[in-house]
Amino acid sequence: RAVFNHTHTYVDASRNWWGDSAGPNNWPQNPGGTGDEVSTFVNVLPFVNAPPAEAPIPPPTGVLKTGLVTTGALVSWNPSPHPEVTGYRVFWNLTTDWWKPGYASSSMDVGASTSAHLPVGIGPDATVAIRAYAADGRESWYSSWNAFGSLTANIQTSVENELPSLTPALSTYPNPFRGTLTVRVTSPHRDGLHLVVVDLQGRTVHTVKQPFALAGTNEFTMDLSGLPSGAYLIRNLAEPMSGASIVTHVR
Hints:
Layout: E1 11-12, E2 42-43, E3 64-69, E4 72-76, E5 85-93, E6 106-111, E7 115-118, E8 127-134, E9 146-147, H1 148-162, E10 169-173, E11 180-187, E12 193-198, E13 204-210, E14 216-223, E15 230-236, E16 244-249
Parallel strand pairs: 1-2
Antiparallel strand pairs: 3-4, 4-7, 5-6, 5-8, 8-9, 10-11, 11-14, 12-13, 12-15, 15-16
């Protein structure tokens, strides 16, 4: 861990474990420390010279800003390898001044999901960070804060270059089906998913929305057991070029 304090008021970070029994690396408080480095105006004495019995949860890693869209912004991160983690909270600011008092202007609990769709109003200057939490109330520190504008374009380009030959497609199975239908969606982009089921009268009778999907092929299961027997059209409105599939429901 590290503490960054941009004010001239000392922050009390004593009685913490800094990764080594020599304590944190800090001049002039503890110049011989070989643990994590701390910044100026952080009081680290006395420090804990052994890890606590109940160590804090490490913050999430691999946070990706996967795109700015008209309906908001997409963000994802690596699932925590620590079994005690039961969920995540997403924090964001509308500016890059994340170090100002209050840190995040908004937050959202996404449960066990490792992706989130942030609302309209997120722009290139917005910053985002993730915290992991456990059922017993312990919570990690923030992952690194980054501005959307610094990474969005590069990430989107790299994803498209990884899968340049993929053609958008939509397929379903089994067909005919009874109750449960699996939909397979292929896309060269990291796009949201907006599946609609339309009956022969042109009415939308079922909808599935997912704001984040990996580039490549994704499968989704729909429970359509409540629909009467008959033929239905399945489309992905988020990827109009993927075509449509006609399926038959048998009760």
